[in-house]
Amino acid sequence: VGTRDDGDAALERELDMLMARVGAEVPADRKAGVIAGYKDIKRMAALLRQPRSAAAEPSNIYSLTPCLRRRPT
Amino acid sequence: MSASTPLHELSIAEAGRRLRDGTLSSTMLTQHALARIASLDPLLHAFVLVTQERALADADRADRELKSGIDKGPMHGIPYALKDIYATAGIRTTCHSKLLIDNVPADDSVVEAKFKAGGAVLLGKLATHEFAIGGPSFDLPFPPARNPWNLDHFTGGSSSGSGAAVAASLVRTAMGSDTGGSIRGPAFYCGTVGLKPTYGLVSRRGVFPLSYTLDHCGPLTWTVEDTALTMQVIAGHDPLDPASANVPITDFSSDLGQDLAGLKLAYPRSFFATQDGISPEVVHSVDAAAEQITRLGAVVEEVSLPDFQLFNACGRVILAAEAYAIHEQDLLSRPLDYGRYAYQRMMAGATLSAADLTQALRLRRELSTAVNEGILGSYDAIITANGLTPAPRIDEFPVDVPPMSTLQTIPFNVTGNPVLAIPTGFSKSGLPLGMQIVGRAFDEPTVLRIGAAYEVASGWIAKRPSLELPIAV
Fold first, then answer.
1. How far apart are CA B168 and CA B251, in angstroms?
2. In this structure, what DSSP letter does residue A29 have?
3. Residues facing B174 on adjacent strands
4. Is B346 strand, coil or helix?
5. pTM attached to this predicted model
6. Which pLDDT belongs to residue A7?
7. Which residues on B lie below 8 Å from A48 (Cβ)?
8. Counting C-beta atoms within 10 Å of the first and last residue's C-beta, which end of chain B has fewer, N or C?
């Protein structure tokens, strides 16, 4: 079981790798905020993984059916 | 309206009537606004550019046209202002950023072109968070806007100048943009009305993008009627905006003045009331609004929505991915030309994978179905809180790390529904509180109907910020 410091250091190493992959040199005085943003988006990306079948497509994002119920023209 | 109503408190409809009966000229209205801006804006920093010459020329033209019987509609002769991400031909458009500090577009955004065609009067360009994402920052070319209810407090963002300018009665209608709550946040914190229209109803062409599939353009105003009148001018299909919806344009004022009998509203109270950090004042205020709406004739029933954190994760991942894609080249090649907050927020997008974005889009469909078919298949609208707390102090924000948002707005960027933000009272400290009224896609008239009925019944509209003016205007 790692300590909290180990976790933060691992997170920073991950971020360094990801930044190197895209060719970014993060200014040193801005790194704390980039790490905080990475930690937050990583937590949110995990939340996206919900149980769903392979047929659950990312299409038809907007459903117009309800609005078409209302206003006859 | 009484004869003693100050000019800056006249609504668009009231000013329009007086412009047409000859008791007021657009020039008088515009000069009054310019004097008020000169007096108050040094405190508020709502404007990054005041277009005085253009405004007076627009006003003079409107006066001549109205006198000769030419009537271009509800905004003819009425001053307005634009968040500084709306392109204005020949007028600097900076996105509040060093990167675009000398940017003078050749063409107007579609919204600006529609205001021009409608004979409206441009007062100037308004402060924003850098590229509509940064935060209230002090490392940008212009200072952050200040909240007219208390200058030490945040306006909300990113349409920060729009919220401040409308709340301080510098202008009746100010355009904002809303990707995760950037119209509804400033409306909430500054105590104004704000409409995020249905995705695709107002053209985004010529408005600097933050996130293609989440960006919405809409107005902030003092009254619901002024929002309806502004929408009448700016809505419409734009074949050159790939997301523009080709739908008939409705009369946005058609349902104003009706009571709420026959309407059935969903109230997902646990959606916001159970969240960590929520102010009891917010819960009480939205509960009271729901009761008021019931007294106006609507049926209000508690319902459940999917967890807010799912909407938030979905919206934030899409926003981060799209914003990074838009800014990638500049973020990598000139990072220090961005302010600290905008850079830090957008770099999160560089860490996402293609699978992350695909999972977000799959979840987006599920959440959209839950709102549009699960709730709005049975209810005419949803009411919910706009944020968890009133406006925080600007000096509470951390220097090194961007502040976390406590707004409850991003779910409806994910789903694309129209949402009206409207004040629901004040905290003990005197800061505005508010709620969101969420409607079916393209059913702005019902959302505006509910908002207008509540606005009249609640009476919050009568309370305005008391600003100490260096000179009486």
1. 28
2. G
3. B81, B220
4. helix
5. 0.96
6. 81
7. 313-314, 317, 356, 359-360, 362-363
8. N
B158 is catalytic: yes
Q: Where are the beta strands (DSSP E) in B268-380?
A: 299-302
Residues of A with CB under 8 A from a CB of B: 15, 18-19, 22-27, 29-30, 32-34, 36-38, 40-45, 47-50, 52, 56-67, 69-71, 73
Give per-residue burial for B194-207: e unless 16+ CB within 10 Å, then b. Answer: bbbbbbbbbbbbbb
Q: Look at residue A72 in the predicted model and tell me its pLDDT.
A: 46
Whether A66 and B441 lie within 8 Å, measured CB to CB: yes
In the predicted structure, residue B7 carries a pLDDT above the cut 80: yes
Q: Is B83 considered catalytic here?
A: yes
Residues of A in contact with B328 (CB under 8 A): 22
* B250 with A33: Cβ contact below 8 A: no
Quote the DSSP letter at residue B199.
T
Residues 6+ apart with CB under 8 A from B445: B250, B251, B252, B254, B255
Distances (CA, A) of B408 to A49, B225, B275, B357, B418: 22, 24, 10, 22, 14
Q: What is the pLDDT of residues B184-229, one digit of tens each?
A: 999 999 999 999 999 999 999 999 999 999 999 999 999 999 999 9
Handedness of CA B30, B56, B28, B15 (dihedral sign): negative
Among residues B341, B437, B376, B371, which one has the least CA distance to residue B136? B341
Amino acid at B332: L
Residue A41: list chain B partners with CB under 8 A.
316-317, 320, 348-349, 351-352
Chain A residues whose CB is inside 8 A of the B415 CB are: 62
**Distance of alpha carbon B202 from alpha carbon B421, whole angstroms:** 17
The predicted complex's ipTM stands at 0.92
Q: Is the pLDDT of residue A67 over 60?
A: no
